[in-house]
Write a structure and sequence with these properties.
The protein has 334 residues and is an alpha+beta fold. It is 47% helix and 16% strand. It has a five-stranded antiparallel beta sheet. Helix 2 packs antiparallel against helix 3 and helix 6 crosses helix 7. The radius of gyration is 41 Å and the shape is rod-shaped.
Amino acid sequence: MLVFLLAARTGLFAEGRFLGKVLDEWIVDGQEFMHTKLPHLLVVVAIAFLLYRILRSVTFHMTRVAEQHAPIPERISQVKTVAGIIRTTGLAVIGLIAGLQVLDALGVNLAPLLASAGVAGIAIGLAAQNIVKDVLNGVLILIEDQFNVGDVVRLAGLAGTVESMTLRKTTVRDADGTLYVIPNSQITTVANQSVGYSVATVNVSVDFSANPDTVVALLKGIAMEIRTSEQFRGVFVSDPQVLGVDAVKGSEIIFPVVFKTQATKQYAPVREFRRRVRLALEESGLLPGDPNRVFQTFVDKVVPGGGNSAPEAEPEHDPTLKKPQDGSPFSSES
């Protein structure tokens, strides 16, 4: 087009006439654009394209590593979600910066545009600050792998199994079937019960009359039988531990038994242990502990010099059988 105008510098486009002067200015502007601004625009486009390729390569590598090493399919979908968010956000930032550079190179005044964008951004940020918090916290949860779908967790004071996760919310279903929807911005502390191992402590209460050594040997035998059984052999992380006498409450003795199993697998062996303990106590003639049962020992006294027993003496006063006072224990009356 420019060559055609140069060839047509006759008549209205002749030198010295109005349109001729306009054509001369266009020629000068075109030369300046080709000399200074066009290289700048080409550099901006090249850098933007290079950054896009790097961003795409990084997100693709994230997805590929997740597909090769992720333990569960849900984790792969989470990584893909994060990769898509990073790719989309990065592309938007690169496009915005490149667009501003192009407009500046073309001589567009960016001050009013930036001022308007700043005001709009502040208004949107104030109106949707909770959503922004949800999204940012959701991204951190996914990147840091704090929990996954199917994990048993305690979030925002609510316990249950994670059913689904998005960038804005997490849904948890508890044991009675109630479904909770928790915004990710409300998740400040995560208690994940599905990571590593679980520890369960069973307190076995036996009557004071039982020999503690006999009870400890009995509990160890039952615990090891469950540990080596075909049903629970692959559940345990280590051997059960019987810690001995932990407390004496009235006429009962407490024997804690500790089970260390795979995460969330402790319930079945603990139930089986309690069932076997009940049967073993009955077979061994041992009474279960009862804090309200009174344990007494009476010793027959033999009369010196004779073979007959003396009349049965009254047992010594047992303070545990004393009737409680009706009045206040802090009063002066005795």
